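Weekly modeling sync, notes
Attendees: S.R. (lead), two postdocs, one rotation student

Agenda item 3: backlog of single-chain predictions. S.R. asked that every request posted to the team notebook include the full sequence so nobody has to chase files. The rotation student volunteered to paste the first one in as an example of the format we agreed on. Action items at the bottom.

Example entry:
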Amino acid sequence: MHWRTSFPLGRRALHRSGLRRRGTPRSVARICPIAWRGAGEIFLMAVGWAVLGLLLFYATPAAHAGPFERGLLWRVERQGSSPSYVFGTLHSTDARAVVLPLAVARAFQRSRVFATEVYLSDADEADFFDAMQFDDGTLLAPLLGEAWFERLKRTLGSDAPADEILAHTKPWAALLRVATPGTSTGTTLDRELLAMARARHMSVIGLEALVEQVAAFDAIPLDTQLAILRYALDHRDALQAQVEPTIRAWLERDLKALARINRPIERGDPELARHYALLTRHVVDGRTALMAYRLYLPLKRGGVFVAVGALHLVGAQGLLALLEQQGYRITRIY
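Predicted structure, as returned to the notebook:
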C-alpha cells in the first residue's frame, strides 16, 4: 500500500533536520527571548494554523475533493478488534474551538489509548529552537533578498525575534511566524485532550516525533520555501482574514468547506502551483501517511482515540481513506 512507503525518514533526513547536530551558535541560543519558552506548544499551534491557512489559501476547490468531506468524529473498526475513533481538531485557542462536543467526549471515555500528532518530551523545546536555525552559517537575508528580509521584519513587528535569531532563521520557520495568527499561549483542544488523557492514566502515543515533523519542513525544497514565504508576505491580510471562516467551517464539521476557503491559485502562475504541490506533498500528504503507518498496530488492538488536525482527514490521501485501505470500516459519528 502507498502509506507503507511514504515516509523515508532515515539518518540522512534526521541529519538534515538539525536535531541530530545542534550547531546553532551558543550566543544565539542564549538570547532566545522569553516568548520562545514553551516553543514546542507554540509550534503545534503554529503548524496547525500556518499549514491550514497556507494550503487553503493556495488550494483550488478540486485539490482536496474526495471522500470524508463532512464530519469530525469517525468510528474505525474491523472484525476482531475493539472500535477506535478518529477526531479532527483545529489547532486554535479560540474558545469556540476548545469546547469538547458531547459525542466526542463519550468516544474519548470509551477509549484506553490517546494518539496525538506530536507528544513532546521536555528536551524537545530546545531541539525545536535549534532546528529552526541554520547551523552552517547560512543567513536568511541573502537567500530571501534584502528588501524582502526588511519587509519580513516589518511584518512581524513586535512578534519578531532578536535580529541575530531572525538572521539565522530557516525560511519555513519564518513562514510559520508570518502565517500564524499571533502567538497566544492559551489552550487548544489538543492540549485539553492530552491533559484529560493524563488525568485518566490513558496510554499516550505520538504519531510523529518532533524530529520527523521538522524533517518534513526541511525536506521542502529551498526555492519553494522562499517563494511561499514571499507570497505569504504579500498576502498576509488575506491569510488572517481566513481565521474566522475556518473556525466556522470547523464548527459546522464541513471539511469540504475548509478545502474551499481560499483564493484559487493564479491561473497564469504554474510556478506557484508547483510550489504549492510540493508543500502539500511534504507537509500534509507525507505526514498523513506516517500517521497511518504509526496507527497500524495500535488500531489492531483497538480502543484508540486519535486526535489530529482536521486537514489530515479529508480526501483520497487523507487519514480516513488510508485507514479504509487497511480494511477498516469508517463510520461518521459526529
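Discussion: group reviewed the output briefly. The chain has a mean pLDDT of 80.
Action items: rotation student to repeat for the remaining queue; S.R. to check formatting next week.
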